[in-house]
Write a structure and sequence with these properties.
This protein is mostly beta strands. 2% of the residues lie in helices and 40% in strands. The protein contains one helix and 14 strands. The strands form two sheets. Strands 1, 2, 5, 6, 8, 11, 12 and 14 form an eight-stranded antiparallel beta sheet that branches. The chain has a six-stranded antiparallel beta sheet with strand order 3-4-7-13-9-10, with no helix packed on it. The radius of gyration is 16 Å and the shape is globular. The termini are far apart. 37% of the residues are buried.
Length: 197
């Protein structure tokens, strides 16, 4: 069962706001549902912890080690336009559909988690992202490391060609101990064109 937490004391030491114009992940054409994790509202100044097997909207929470789970941060904690998820030692996945023969570009924003409560366990907050097609194909993915406390677009988007398949799973895989992982938000998957093998 997920737990609601209020942590007003963390407000001054978490993510700083950006001043750039923002485009909602819910914009037309996004193949990802709840890319800004808005299906459940975290308490103001607080967060919600999710265990493996639970859902945040269309997202399935998993565990990359025995501690597992992820944490949903409120907008007050992220000091950003959207809520965000600390993937910590957990995984976050969602299945999406795209027409056969489509080229799909996947982007998101990330930031370092600066929560002082777990500063000793921060490390480099490296994580991996992959798109898992049906078993007949190999996953497409890469590793990422947020470099600062401000939310920024990831350095390199993931692009896939769907071929003859139309169902795929996008998975974020956290590697940080104790829930002190990078923050993820504004996940967008859009068809950018069509190609032929």
């Amino acid at each position: 069962m997920h737990k609601h937490m209020s942590v007003g004391a963390l407000l001054g030491a978490t993510i700083l706001a950006t001043t750039a114009a923002l485009t909602p992940a819910a914009a037309a054409g996004n193949l990802i549902k709840s890319g800004t994790f808005s299906d459940e509202e975290a308490p103001a100044g607080g967060y919600i912890e999710y265990d493996a097997g639970e859902h945040i909207g269309a997202w399935l929470v998993g565990a990359s080690d025995q501690r597992g789970g992820v944490t949903l941060y409120s907008r007050a904690l992220t000091q950003y336009a959207y809520q965000a998820v600390d993937i910590g030692p957990g995984t976050l996945s969602q299945t999406f559909e795209a027409d056969e023969g489509s080229v799909v570009n996947i982007t998101w924003k990330h930031a370092r988690n600066t929560d002082p409560a777990c500063a000793r366990d921060m490390g480099d907050q490296k994580y991996s992202v992959q798109v898992v097609p049906p078993p007949t194909s190999d996953p497409v993915g890469d590793e990422y490391t947020p470099v600062g406390p401000r939310f920024a677009p990831i350095s390199k988007s993931l692009q896939i060609y769907t071929g003859r398949e139309d169902h795929f799973t996008l998975e974020f895989d956290g590697r940080a101990p104790g829930g002190c992982g990078p923050l993820i938000t504004d996940v967008v998957a859009k068809v950018t064109g069509h190609a032929h093998p």
